[in-house]
Amino acid sequence: MNMATSDTNHDQGSIRLRQTNASTPAPRVRHVDQLPEETLTTVLTLLEGETRVASNEHDLIEGETIVFTDYYTVSRS
Amino acid sequence: MTEYVIIGDGISGSSAAETIREEDPDSSITVITDEGEPLYNRILIKEHAKGKLPEAPISIHDEEWYEERDIELSLNTHVVTVDTDEHVVRTHEKDDIPYDKLLIATGGTPTQLPVENSDAEGIHHFWTFQDARKIRESAEAADDAVIVGAGLLGIDFAAVCGSQDVDGKFLMRGDRWWRYALSADGAEIMHEGMRGVGVEPVFDSGVSEFEVDAEGHVEAAIDANGDRYPCDFAGVAIGLTFNTEFLRDTDIEQDNGIVVDEFMQTNVEDVYAAGDLTRFYDVLVGDQAQNGSWGSAKEQGRVAGINMAADDEAEVFEWVSSYSITHFDFPFLSFGHPTIGDDYAERRYSDTEWRRIAFIDGKVVGGVLIGDLSAQSKLKQLMREQRVVADQADVLLEKQVDLDNLAPTQEQ
Ligand SMILES: Cc1cc2nc3c(=O)[nH]c(=O)nc-3n(C[C@H](O)[C@H](O)[C@H](O)COP(=O)(O)OP(=O)(O)OC[C@H]3O[C@@H](n4cnc5c(N)ncnc54)[C@H](O)[C@@H]3O)c2cc1C
């Protein structure tokens, strides 16, 4: 759970979750309990250190903040 | 044209309004709330109270959102009665609003401690954005806190104290936090989390009285043992009282919550209920059940909206809920109904990792994971599948759960 960043291959490019702080402006801020089931699983898998996530079913958007044990920003690269 | 009235603009009411507009584009929809702001992110108000998140991202809908969807939004409007024979909702301003279909989505209000001075200045309850603003301001100025209520919301007060540098004493009635869902092993991890943010759990305690200063501000809590805990901030989270006062003249069935079936219908025609205040028929456990979580409230609102618009039993509410605690450097997630099992299996993996699974008739009905959440989706899947697996609990307690290691399902 201490991973500060992680990547995944995704059909629209790879996704990174980067530790951030709350004052970073974001198009959307969601707590993990607000994520649909597949997105929650994807986020947890990324934070557990996986670099590849089999499922591409998630609704994360560029720049959004996810509130978990830290604040994380979603980026696609 | 069907007239829909929704009382409550929390996530369940709002999600119903959105669904009805999609399903019945030509209808009239009115959403009534006694709060002064449209839907906001009730989960994230704790981050605001902690001083971490500004106000703006916590808002979900502005008033335009309702205008764009031709939904009539009445803010600051308290519903005082409902006449289910006449199909009319009456507001505090004595406006009568007729309905064809009514949704009750009014959630709950935190229960006040029935002890002396429990409404003193500096004593807080936590439900609305307004509460969060006051808690933030009060905690910023405080040095010592007392927290009461050893459940999921009490811990949010502990987190506020941690973030705002307030020394806290968390007074609990029993020997551990959330004793209905956690054994001593699991609870001890949470206690360490609290200590880590400067909040000390005090067991076999509980407040029997608050002391106030000359200005009426809280200055101490006296516990059941007569011990005195000085404080200039107190957080009380001992439970919710459901907002159903306005239904007293109706025959709507209540049993510590509004009783609904799996379609979110009450026993009274054209009246539905959704969200925290329902006692719903949970098809996954085959019994009435309750749940207070964002995802469940949102889904109940959506399913109610579908069935109201269809004027039929079109969709069943079938949902495995999740509730997380994200305040410590290890995560916590509870799912389903972790407190109602007739059998439990648990394991501790390390100082910060623990898992417990609740079963009824051998089927998974809920659980709690601390530290390592990797098994959550598989355990939820088993709950959805209603598979009898309690006799193979060892497989479910492996650190990495592999469902292929379960024996194939036998014909029941
Ligand atoms: C501090 C806090 C932290 C939380 N953390 C989490 C979490 O981490 N994860 C999670 O899943 N859930 C969490 N929850 C719970 C979650 O927010 C609720 O389960 C969910 O918001 C319930 O939605 P609802 O629509 O049923 O009710 P509510 O959001 O309570 O909405 C009901 C609305 O009805 C209005 N109302 C009541 N009576 C009347 C009346 N007579 N007339 C008009 N309007 C009325 C109320 O003012 C309110 O706006 C948290 C809740 C709080 C307060």
Secondary structure layout plus pairing:
The complex is a heterodimer of chains A (77) and B (412).
Chain A: E1 5-8, E2 15-20, E3 29-31, H1 37-47, E4 65-67, E5 71-76
Parallel strand pairs in A: 3-4
Antiparallel strand pairs in A: 1-2, 2-5, 4-5
Chain B: E1 3-7, H1 11-23, E2 28-32, H2 45-49, H3 63-68, E3 71-74, E4 79-83, E5 88-91, E6 96-98, E7 101-104, E8 108-110, E9 123-124, H4 129-141, E10 144-148, H5 154-163, E11 167-171, H6 184-196, E12 199-202, E13 207-212, E14 218-223, E15 228-230, E16 233-236, E17 240-242, E18 258-260, E19 271-273, E20 278-282, E21 287-289, H7 294-310, E22 322-325, E23 332-336, E24 343-350, E25 353-360, E26 363-370, H8 376-385, H9 393-397
Parallel strand pairs in B: 1-2, 1-7, 2-3, 7-19, 9-16, 10-11, 10-16, 11-12, 18-20
Antiparallel strand pairs in B: 4-5, 5-6, 8-17, 13-14, 14-15, 20-21, 22-23, 23-26, 24-25, 25-26
Helix pairs in contact in B: 1-7
What does this structure look like?
The complex is a heterodimer of chains A (77) and B (412). By secondary structure, chain A is of the alpha+beta class. Chain A has one domain (13-76). Chain A is built from 1 helix and 5 strands; from the N terminus they run βββαββ. A 5-stranded mixed sheet of chain A has the order 1-2-5-4-3, with helices on one face. Chain A is globular, with a radius of gyration of 11 Å. Chain A starts with a strand and ends with a strand. Residues 1-13 of chain A have low confidence and may be disordered. With 412 residues, chain B is an alpha/beta fold. Chain B has 3 domains: 3-109 and 240-310, 3-Layer(bba) Sandwich (FAD/NAD(P)-binding domain), CATH 3.50.50.60; 112-236, FAD/NAD(P)-binding domain, CATH 3.50.50.60; 330-405, FAD/NAD-linked reductase, C-terminal dimerisation domain (Enolase-like, domain 1, 2-Layer Sandwich), CATH 3.30.390.30. In chain B, 22% of the residues lie in helices and 29% in strands. Chain B is built from 9 helices and 26 strands. Chain B has helices at residues 11-23, 45-49, 63-68, 129-141, 154-163, 184-196, 294-310, 376-385, 393-397, and strands spanning 3-7, 28-32, 71-74, 79-83, 88-91, 96-98, 101-104, 108-110, 123-124, 144-148, 167-171, 199-202, 207-212, 218-223, 228-230, 233-236, 240-242, 258-260, 271-273, 278-282, 287-289, 322-325, 332-336, 343-350, 353-360, 363-370. In chain B, the strands form 7 sheets. A 5-stranded parallel sheet of chain B has the order 3-2-1-7-19. The longest helix of chain B is centred in the C-terminal third of the chain and has 17 residues, at 294-310. Chain B is globular. The complex binds flavin-adenine dinucleotide. Chain B: It comes from Natronosalvus hydrolyticus. Chain B: It holds the Pfam family Rubredoxin_C. Chain B: Its cofactor is FAD. Chain B: InterPro entries: FAD-bd_OxRdtase (IPR050260), FAD/NAD-bd_sf (IPR036188), FAD/NAD-binding_dom (IPR023753), FAD/NAD-linked_Rdtase_dimer_sf (IPR016156), Rubredoxin_C (IPR041575). Chain B: Residues 328-386 form the NADH-rubredoxin oxidoreductase C-terminal domain. Chain A: Residues 1-28 are annotated as: Disordered.
